Amino acid sequence: MLLSGCVTATVDEMVFNEPTAGIGNSTVVILGRRQASDQDTELSFVECVGKHISSRDKSIIVLGELDFIDALYPWFEPRTAPLRPTALKKLMQRRPVAQKMAELNTEYMIWINGNTERTHSMSSMSCTLSPAGGGCFGFSHWSDESNYEAVIWNFTDMAEVGRVSTNASGQSYMPAIFIPIPIIAPVKGTACNGIGDQLLKFLSAHY
């Protein structure tokens, strides 16, 4: 049995130059920041945000992160990826990069920075196994917190055009009387949906 724990979430949005009718036939790529040990955004979260956007507006083409990085190797590897729009402008002066970007028809790049961390855990559960049978008895609980920020870059203007940040926290439980029953707080999923909905308002003509 899988139950859901309680999650609280907040989302902040700052937009400088929002498209008035969506992004048309252009594509968007969502990348995770991984330039340092404290900037190791999970690939699974980046994929979650991309799927959230494309599933709710099928006209938006979201390029896969790994496909995009491979197509532009080595310019978007963690050690060489541009950290600021000014660096992107210099990078686009390289003909192979500019040609590949034109082929991909990418209008917006979204950098996601953040992660989900276990902030607290406690367990008083014990499990036994014997020839007569076995089981678990006790109670466990833990807290998770997600903090992510999405920074939106426009390739046409070579500028940052918006930011979206989300914070989600929740507590999960696992009581056990013979069988453990997880009551999971979908913290990362809530953060993904929150930031995905805000990005849809920016990218989609239907939101």
Query: What fraction of the residues are assigned to beta strands by DSSP?
Result: 35-45%
How would a crystallographer describe the biggest sheet? 7 strands, mixed
Q: How many domains would you count in the coordinates?
A: 1
Top-tier CATH class:
Alpha Beta
Average per-residue pLDDT, rounded, comes to 87
The helix tally amounts to: 5
Weakly predicted, low-confidence segments = none
How far the N terminus sits from the C terminus, by CA atoms, comes to 36 Å
Q: How does the helix and strand content classify structurally?
A: alpha/beta
Outline: elongated
Architecture per CATH nomenclature, i.e. the level-2 architecture = 3-Layer(aba) Sandwich
Number of DSSP E strands: 9
- Give me the CATH fold name: Rossmann fold
The percent of residues in helical segments reads 25-40%
Task: Give a topology summary.
Layout: E1 3-4, E2 6-15, E3 27-32, H1 43-56, E4 61-63, H2 65-71, H3 85-91, H4 95-104, E5 106-123, E6 126-130, E7 133-154, E8 159-180, E9 183-184, H5 187-203
Parallel strand pairs: 1-9, 3-4, 3-5
Antiparallel strand pairs: 2-8, 5-7, 6-7, 7-8
Helix pairs in contact: 1-5
